[in-house]
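[09:14] KT: can someone run the structure on this one? pasting the chain below
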Amino acid sequence: MRDIVDPSVRTATPADAGVVLVLARELAITFVTERRAFRDSYRQLLAASDTDLLVVDVGGVVRGYLLGFSHHSLIANGQVSWVEEVAVAAEFRRHGLGARLMADFERRARDRGSRFIALATTRAHAFYEAMGYSDHASYFRKLL
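[09:31] RB: done, structure tokens below
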């Protein structure tokens, strides 16, 4: 186990793209994360006002990221937020880094007035349940 000294969460920058690409490739199950498509999306996500692309920095090195969105909803009486991706480098898991990313996103969502945060997961049920999330709906998808 590694000692985690003073991790911090911050908004991602263009300089973080390389490390985030590596982490995204580790996270991906269905798709192969292609460098060119990643770079185009990364640039657009950094510029989007409804998007939080956060990284957790440990000793000056990015060890995880979170991609989340906030938008208005008709049925929730206001804004809602969605966590799209959370990834922490394998050797740094179970040290609270993912929880720090989630807590920062929750704070940002709350500050924006979001009514709730939703997400889908296939591998991390216990992680989200430990943070107070509940299994509420089924997730459907169709690959295009």
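[09:33] KT: thanks! The first strand starts at residue 8 and ends at 11.
[09:34] RB: yep, looked fine to me
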